[in-house]
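User: Run a structure prediction on this.
Assistant: Running it now.
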Amino acid sequence: MAEPYQLTATEAIQAIRRRELGVADLVRSLLTRIDALEPAVQAWVRIDRSTALAEAENRDAGWHEHAVLPLFGLPIGLKDIYDTRGLATSAGFPPWVDRVPDRDATAVERIRAAGAIVLGKTVTTQFAFADPPRTRNPWNPDRTPGGSSSGSAAAVAARMVPLALGSQTAGSILRPAAYCGVLGLKPTYGLISRFGILPLAWSLDHPGPIARSVEDLALALTVLAGPDRRDPITGSARLGDYLAAVRHPASSPVLAVVEDFFDLSESPVRTAVRRAIDALASAGAQLRAVRLTTDLQTVADAQQTIMQVEAAEAHSALHGQQAEAYAPRMRALIEAGQLVPATLYLRAQRIRRRFRQEVAAMLRDVDCLVLPTVSNRAPDRSATGDRTFQAPWSLIGLPAVTLPAGLADGLPCGLQVVAPAWQEAPLLAIARWIETVLPALSEPVVQIQASTSTGTH
C-alpha cells in the first residue's frame, strides 16, 4: 500500500474499513507530511494536532460501531471562513486571530456527523477576496496557488490532507484547484448550506470541496448537500445519487466547447486544454463548438458590481468599526460597493438574468459545456489569478467541476465542465469519464527548503 498521506479520500476510507490502516496512523502520516512541507507551502493557519490525534484514537477504538459512516476516520482541512466550535476562525482578519466560535457551520456539523476529523484550518485570502495570501503553489514556489481557497487547494495538492473545503464567490474553488493541479467542485447555488460560513456576497457564495479524484468530490457532496433550515436558500435543493453516478461513468457525452474562452486564453493553456478535449473526442465524446452572445466582459462587470454591493452590505458594521484592519483590496471592494448606485446594481441583475437564460438555452441540446478553467497558468504571488472564466458560473449559480488537463511549461492547467442547475450527478458522471480518459498528474515536488518549524499548532 502507498504511504498513508498519498491516499485519496476514498482510498483512505476503504483502507480504514478493511482494517489495513488505522485512523491514528493516517493522521500521524499527514502530520509528518505537514511538518516536512508546511514551512515551504504555508497552507495552514492552524493545525488542531492534539484534538485530531485524540479523535483518531477514538475512531480506532469505535471501529466496529461506526466504520460504516461515509467519512469515517477521514482527516479534512477547512478554509478559515468555516466556523468551528472551539477552534479559532479568523478569515485572515488580524483582529479576529483569537475569534473562537461556539458552534460549527452546518457543513462542519455534517462532516463531523459523517465520521470525519477536522485536521485544521487552511489559509484563505482575507474574507475570501483577492488580497494575496502567504501560501505558495506546490508546483512552483514563486507562483500563486490562486485564491481565495488558497490553503485548501495547496494542502490537497501537496498531499497534506486528502480533502478540504473551500468556497467560491467568483472563482475561488475552481481557480486554485486548477492552478494546483487538483479537482474542485462548485455546486449549484443553494445545494450546500452557507450557515456558519463567513459571507462575502450573499447571492454569489458557494461552499464546495477540493480533492484529488472525482469520487472524492462525490463522497463529500453526498455528506454536504441538502436543505438546512438555517439557510433558507437551500430549501429548493434537489439532490442526486452522486456516488452511484461516478460508479457508472457517462459514455459518449455531448459537450459544447465554448470558443469565447479559448480566444482569451494564453497560448500554453489553449494548447493544453485543446489537447485534452481532442483526447475526449478520440474516446467518444461528441463535440459542438458554440459561442456566447453576451460579451464576457459584460458578464464579469455584472458579477463584480453585485459582489461589491453585497460585500459592502455584509461588512458594513465591521468596516465602520475597524476599516484600518482590512487588507487593501478587500477594503477597496467594500468602499467601492458603498458608492454603487441602485440603478447600476439592478442593471447587473438584469444582465445576470439574461445570461442565465442564454446559458440554459445553450445547455438544452448538450450534456455540459467545456472550457479552460483559467485563462492563464498560475501567475506570480502578487495576485490570485484571473477569475474571468469561473465567475460566469458563480453569477448564475450553475455547477462546475475542474479537472487537471495537463501541464504547460511545468504548471497545471484545468479543464472546466459546466452543467445545468441541480445536475451534479450527471456532471460528476461525465467528470469521472473524463478522469478515465485524461492522464493523471504526478505528485508536485515542493521546491523550497523546509525549515524546522511549521508555524502551526
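The chain has 17 helices and eleven strands.
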